[in-house]
Design goal:
Keywords: Membrane, Transmembrane, Transmembrane helix. It comes from Hymenobacter jejuensis. InterPro entries: DUF1361 (IPR009793). This is DUF1361 domain-containing protein. With 228 residues, this protein is mainly alpha-helical. 80% of the residues lie in helices and 0% in strands. It has one domain. It starts with 5 loop residues before the first helix and ends with a helix.
């Protein structure tokens, strides 16, 4: 089992927070400038989407920095809420659907704006999943941690489908549970009647998993290069 000294872990966390903060600031600046340029709130909803993407990252950061006894007590309930909000982070990738030529702003500007937000959503998702996988690995081992990461990304992809195509959101678990449960159960029991559901889930899930594995491998390659 890998052990990272607390001081080193803190420096890594602060560096990550600085980079993510700078990247999020860029997205906010791009959205704000667009409002001033066009006097329209076309992409203002992306601020809310970024906020939702920050929730699972905030939860995983809290769990990762909590003391051992506290973390053990809150891991399951916080982990369940984390899984509920986790799809909001990669969901921003699908906001590329909103990209189209619009009067008053260059097409390339809107492309950069949406890509910036999508990138932040993806990086927040991966950073949060890294935290959660590390917690699972400490308790159950490497194999179980990768099983957890794979299931989390596949469930997240299903959640992205529910959000983009069915227009559900995380709050519907409380505000509209019966309809949400019925639509999910219907797709589970009748998969061939909902090929689009499972096509999106599997394709997007594989894409997210390969991206996550790439990010992890790049991190290991960078650590190896630094120590050699």
């Amino acid at each position: 089992m890998d052990f990272t000294p607390p001081a080193h872990a803190l420096r890594q966390r602060l560096s990550l927070l600085f980079i993510l903060g700078a990247s999020l600031t860029l997205s906010v600046v791009l959205i704000t400038l667009r409002v001033f340029m066009t006097h329209q709130l076309t992409f203002i909803f992306l601020l809310w989407n970024l906020f939702l993407a920050l929730i699972p990252f905030g939860m995983s950061t809290m769990l990762g920095t909590a003391a051992g006894p506290l973390r053990a007590r809150v891991l399951l309930p916080v982990g369940a809420v984390w899984m509920l909000f986790f799809p909001n982070a990669p969901y921003i990738l699908t906001d590329l659907f909103h990209l189209e030529p619009r009067v008053g702003v260059p097409y390339w500007y809107d492309l950069a704006l949406i890509l910036s937000c999508a990138w932040n959503g993806l990086m927040l998702a991966y950073a949060s999943l890294l935290d959660m996988q590390a917690l699972v690995q400490r308790r159950l081992g490497v194999a179980a941690s990768w099983l957890f990461a794979t299931i989390a990304l596949m469930l997240s992809s299903f959640g992205v489908y529910l959000g983009r195509y069915m227009r559900f959101n995380s709050w519907d678990v409380i505000t509209n549970p019966l309809e949400l449960f019925y639509d999910i159960l219907n797709r589970v029991l009748h998969p061939f009647a909902h090929r689009g559901t499972w096509g999106v889930t599997l394709l997007f899930g594989v894409f997210l998993l390969l991206g996550y594995m790439t990010v992890r491998q790049l991190g290991r390659a960078g650590d190896t290069a630094t120590t050699n």
